[in-house]
Fold this sequence. Notes:
The protein is an alpha+beta fold and 237 residues long. Helices cover 16% and strands 38% of the residues.
Amino acid sequence: METEVTEQFFRENAYQKQCSxxxxxxxxxxxxxxxxxxxxxxxxxxxxxxxxxxxxGIATVVDTRYxxxxxxxxxxxxxxxxxxxxxxVTAHIDWERRYKHMRMHTALHLLGSILQYGVxxxxxxxxxxxxxxxxxxxxxxxxxxxxxxxxxxxxxxxTCRWISDEELHSQPELVRTMSVQPPKGAGNIRLLExxxxxxxxxxxxxxxxxxxxxxxxxxxxxxxxRRNRRVSILLDQ
Length: 237
């Protein structure tokens, strides 16, 4: 495969549902495009699914992963045709699934703004998401739910911006995650900002305002160790 970088439209516009692109490489169950709207697995957020279409063909994307040298691999279900290198295609994400991930990811940032502890892990799915906190305290679910509702109702703006490695190094308090550090060395790092609520490095996709999160509530709270509490959240679908 060629060492070209896939242009990532989801970085600047998480609401873009499709794009036209050219096939950089295709082999067995992998298609690599020069540009994409598909988010690849990372930061606890699943890779997008959807389809890639071209004249006379269609391929079902069952997962999206980072490949080598900045390329993004669209993993295909193995059925049907694969477009040849150089083919112009249209890439479509499964928008309903992606939008739930966007709502969930933003909701986890709200949860983290309420529970001010180090984050040791996390996972996002369309049905249930979670954060693991470095904490011994118990979680007052009623109180957290009330605070979540207020943050959603307040309709805080959600935006992204970029800072340099040096700026992040001078502000270590921005990094809440203990198990995974934001990637460094690329020259800039993406920040997710919920106005007046949260500011931290994040490469995921998010809604434009907290109101879009909708009704969110704490689900199961599990004790995973002396200093580890796993807190799950659920959205009203």
